[in-house]
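Annotated sample (chain length 530).
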Amino acid sequence: MSEHNPDTAFAGVSRLRGRIFGSLAKAASWVGVVVLAWLLFMVVVDAFGLTAASTDWYLGALVGFGAPLATYSAYLYWKRPDLRWIAVRATVIPPAGLIFAGAIFVLFLVFEPFFWFLYYTIAVLPAVAVYGHFATRDDTRAPLAAGFVGVVGLVIGYFVEPLILIMPLPWIMLVWVLVVPAGALIAYRQAPEDRQQQVTILGTGVAGGVLASYLGPALIGVTPDTAVILYAATLLPVAWYNGAVLANDRSAWPGLLGPVVALGAIGGGIVLGGLVGTTGPEPVLDWQFLTSAPSTLPANAGLFPAIVGSVFIIAIVAIVSFVVGVGAAIYLEEYAPQTGVGGTITRIIRVNIANLAGVPSVVYGLLGLGLFVNLIGMGLGIVLVAGLTLSLLILPIVIISAQEAIRSVPEEVREASYGMGATRWQTIREVVLPRAVPGVLTGTILALSRAIGETAPLLMIGAATTVFRPPTGFASQVSAMPLQVFYWSFHQKSAFRELIAPAGVVTLLVVMLSMNVLAIYLRNRYEQQA
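Output written by the structure step:
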């Protein structure tokens, strides 16, 4: 008769419980994913009016869209698997460039081109020249000297700006501010040792920018300055990437056809769907929606002022939260005492920062109202107050993520740096921070993704749910995408609730997902460098 072993029986029960718990966790995860995917699908259906299309239209669009993509994908999979990532990058660069061009357009809409032209010429260029001069001689004073020259240039520009009466044409200033530095950067990356090739690339890039200012209005009906922005942010990166790929391997040209195939598939799907089907979709989320102001008529409603407001708010949040948050994390991990009374205070500060990360967002709205509006005297609902309030909201998250990233750097690396004679700041700047950058950037951008979707703090500081003009400065009244969507979702007209609000939600989700993709890209890039 075999002897019963309690340990074996207990191990069997533990394994059974582990399997049950694992199965329940997987089931709950899949249920959450399916429910979220279904909700997003319903929002997309409403935003693009997909229910208005007939079945025949979908069949035709599916054939016209799927056949070219399937053929191209099969070719890459079976014949040229080495070109997959080239095709992906070539397809991603044009839409990313268009998004970047939109951000540049917003900056030049609020701050006139002359602002950028003047300070770029007086402050940025001299600072870059001084930095290059010291860096080529391996002088550690390069950042300090460049920063000093840049600050002096900013001060000079502040006093010189009112005295200048004659200004170049806007597109000329944009060529100087955008095209010339982009062309110089591409020339340096493409031919780091060949001066003649660098000059050729730079000259070709600048000539293309000038040509775009004439062809843009004639071909696509935009203004010359808008054409230059599109050229600098979209066409120039595409041309550079294609040229770099072909310079490395001329047989890789099929991989560069990715965007052409994708665009042709979209056009083919629309054309074939229209030929076969009786009715097509009636999208609300279109170019008119993205470039128009809110309206009392659903057909004319747009999100442009809220998009610009969100861009301004998140720019302030990014600068304030990154500088203050990373600085606080560096102090707490590298400089703050860890033992004695000082160590106790440090631990209390860390605990409170962790607690602040869980405070409801509406509390930060009340804090922003009391601190920035009532105490300091800033205006209600302006860009600066909104940005500072949301900075307070995500600051604990940024500090915690930066602390974890800095703490993950092995102590042996620090000791090796000290052994080489480096000071504490040199060790932090040259050894610790480069290895912590992936985690710091990932945490910061994910925190920014949360900030851009917040509504309660903005309502508490008096931000308007609807504005009809984009902000023209940091003291302007502002709205944001989540506020505008919040207003539409409770509108008395059903068209706003059922069509316009979903279009705003999709726009907001696209922006948030783009920020998350950027976080993943930066993390992977800096991890490889580290």
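Annotation: The radius of gyration is 27 Å.
Annotation: The chain has a mean pLDDT of 85.
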